[in-house]
Amino acid sequence: MGTRDKRWRILDTPSVEQQTLVRELKIHPVICGILAQRGLSDFEAAKKYFRPSLADCHDPFLMKSMELAVDRIISALKNNEAILVYGDYDVDGTTSVALVFDFLHKLKPSAKLDYYIPNRYKEGYGLSAQGIAYAEANGFQLLITLDCGIKSIELIEVARTKGIDTIVCDHHLPGEDLPNAVAILNAKQKDCPYPFKELCGCGVGYKLVQALCQKLGLPESAYLQYLEWVATAIAADIVPVNGENRILAFHGIQKANTQPSTWIKALMELSRSEQKISIGNLSFLIGPRINAAGRMDDAKKAVQLFIEKDGEKAKALAQLLQSDNSSRKEADAMITEEAIRMIEADESFPYRKSTVVYAPHWHKGVIGIVASRLLERYYKPTIVLTKSGDYWAGSARSIPGFNIHDALDECRQLLKAFGGHYFAAGMTLEEENLEAFSSQLDEIATRVLSDEQMVPEIIIDAEIEPKDLTTSFYKILEQMEPFGPENPRPVFCIKNAIDKGCRIVKNEHVRFEIEKEGARMQGIGFNMAEKFLQKKEEMPLDIVFTLEENHYNNQTTLQMKVIDFRTSAS
User: Fold this and answer.
1) What is the pLDDT of residue 1?
2) What 3-state class would DSSP assign to 4?
3) Which residues of 323-348 are buried (b: 16+ CB within 10 A; e: fewer)?
4) Three-state SS across 480-510?
5) Would you say 254 and 290 are in contact if contact means Cβ atoms under 8 Å apart?
6) Are 146 and 73 in contact (CB under 8 A)?
7) Which helix (H) or strand (E) covers residue 156, if one does?
8) Class of domain 7-51+457-567
């Protein structure tokens, strides 16, 4: 990102709701304002928000076809039918598969059970022809797909003709036509009455297990033991952290901190983190290590880790994931560096509103990560491609205001295949179309994106004064966790602060110390040295930040984690 200026936007606060909350909760008006922005309007709503209760989770049988799915699984177990649990190679897919497989195995240890994770490079995403062939060759009569299957109409039909029934558990948006499965569990189906529509794939698997427990009269502990698996999938799959997801994530994190599973212990030990487990840890420490298995090698070992009960064996499996993650980091750093050199050497790049880079030797498993890094640096819709067999495979990432899936749809005559959503997508194309594709994408970006949209925007929840940033204020903020989409970590702004000794540390970062109305506050701004050197001397500062605790020399103090700053307008 360098020293690029950003747009600041302070959110409006619904004042009536804010005043109601101040009166009823008796907490700081700024926090009440943020709660009001997030749709909370009274004491009851705030209570449910601050004290998420498992009792507020929805009845799994509200999900369309749940009864059919449960009856078919119970019948398969009774009749000793062979069951194959099938899921995707990312965190959501592997946790889903492990959860359902582990539960069925505990339910009936003698059951004929297996799991299948497709190979990212040989089979690609979702249900594959190889997976169906494996099920047929090994005599499976029931296939349970997790985090995939909603669009696998032809393959599920092929399975049916081979005498294999399918239960689809998915959370992706269904198409017009649905597969001919025994049961489809997906809250996004048009006629599904399930109240919460944003479960991740593992969340759908969890609701299936909860329904089985209820039907079989098992104790709640039989499904609650999997809460941290669901929390990990929620963190990694970037689904909204509100409604039922927030309840599941909250209790999953609580369990991970009090009674962690063998796999959580092994991965946290390897990451050498002393911190309490939070949604951030799950997202940035645990998630990448699980994902690395599918990116660099075989995601089956992630499932093996989840279901392993022996501590020493779990450590050995976690070590394999750690090794994959180290390889992933090396590949990612090398490709990012190479891509930046290519971009900086391209004289036309400053005039383009999109980024398309490609090289035949780049590792297919990390091009999505590289696309994210380039987007962060240049803030343009970005596509990174590499050679994959006879074709070129690419990964796309986008910015607000530019729907990358719609843009690919406009370029479909140049593509062999594509799929995805607003902010992320994938595609394959022939080599001869690379240049034309790059040009057409940029024409679309130039037409759709205004110059203003090419400037990153920082959403600020509220302006605040340093005197308000107290320990008790922070303790209430902490209770707003877990943070994520639809419930982000609050972002604050202090205006007209006096510089009381801000300085550059380690040539890259800035240590802030500011004062306003007699109250002082310290903070850290990472990689802000270049911007700091350009600021006008002696001028007051406006600072955007999140609030965090700084643990140093056995002391804990509050500090600003600075996101951006600028010279105050006079």
Assistant:
1) 39
2) coil
3) ebbebbeebbeebbeebbeebeeeee
4) CCCCECCECCCCEEEEEEEECCCEEECCCEE
5) no
6) no
7) helix 153-161
8) mainly beta
Nearest to 210 by CA among 226, 187, 188, 191: 226
DSSP-based three-state secondary structure for 565 = strand
Taking only the tens place, the pLDDT of each residue in 155-211 is 999 999 999 999 999 998 888 999 999 999 999 999 999 999 999 999 999 999 999
- The full DSSP string for 24-83 is HH-S-HHHHHHHHHTT--SHHHHHHHHS--GGGSPPGGGSTTHHHHHHHHHHHHHTT--E
Percent of the chain residues past pLDDT 70, beyond the cut: 99
Write the pLDDT tens digit of every residue in 73-91.
999 999 999 999 999 999 9
Instruction: Give the model's confidence band at 4: pLDDT under 50 very low, under 70 low, under 90 confident, else very high.
Output: low
- Structural domain boundaries of the chain? 7-51+457-567, 56-322, 346-454
Q: List, in order, residues 6 or more apart from 215 with CB less than 8 Å away.
A: 70, 74
**Residue 70: count of CB within 10 angstroms of its CB:** 23
Q: Check whether 382 has a pLDDT greater than 50.
A: yes
Q: Identical fold at 7-51+457-567 and 346-454?
A: no
The single-letter code of the amino acid at 394 is: G
Cβ(262)–Cβ(278) under 8 Å?
no
End-to-end CA gap in the chain: 27
* Global confidence as pTM: 0.91
pLDDT value at 472 more than 60:
yes
Separation of alpha carbons 134 and 131, rounded Å = 5
Q: What is the DSSP string of 432-482?
A: GGHHHHHHHHHHHHHHH--TGGGS-EEEE-EE--GGG--HHHHHHHHTTPS
The first and second tokens of residue 111, run together, are 């059951």
346-454, which class in CATH? alpha beta
Q: Whose CA is closest to 124, among 299, 288, 283?
A: 299
- The residue among 420, 424, 432, 357 whose CA lies nearest residue 391 is 432
Q: In the numeric block, which tokens belong to residue 153? A: 């109409």
Please say whether the beta carbons of 229 and 303 come within 8 A: no
Give the H/E segment covering residue 415.
none
The CATH architecture annotation of domain 56-322 reads Alpha-Beta Complex (3.90)
Chain segment 24-69, per-residue pLDDT in tens: 999 999 999 999 999 999 999 999 999 999 999 999 999 999 999 9
Spatial neighbors of 43 by CB under 8 A, at least 6 apart, are: 21, 24, 25
> Measuring CA to CA, how many Å separate 198 from each of 186, 240, 317, 358, 363?
10, 7, 31, 34, 32
Residues 209/99, Cβ–Cβ less than 8 Å: yes
CA of 217: how far to CAs of 179, 214, 220, 222, 223, in Å? 31, 5, 9, 10, 12
SS3 for 236-277 is HHCCCCCHHHHHHHHHHHHHHHHCCCHHHHHHHHHCCCCCCC
d(CA 490, CA 472) in angstroms, rounded, equals: 16
- Give percent helix, percent strand, percent coil of the chain, each to the nearest 5: 45, 20, 35
Distance, in Å, from the CA atom of 128 to the CA atom of 514, rounded to the nearest integer, reads 58
User: Which neighbouring-strand residues pair with 114?
Assistant: 84
Rounded to whole angstroms, the Cα distance separating 35 from 305 reads: 39
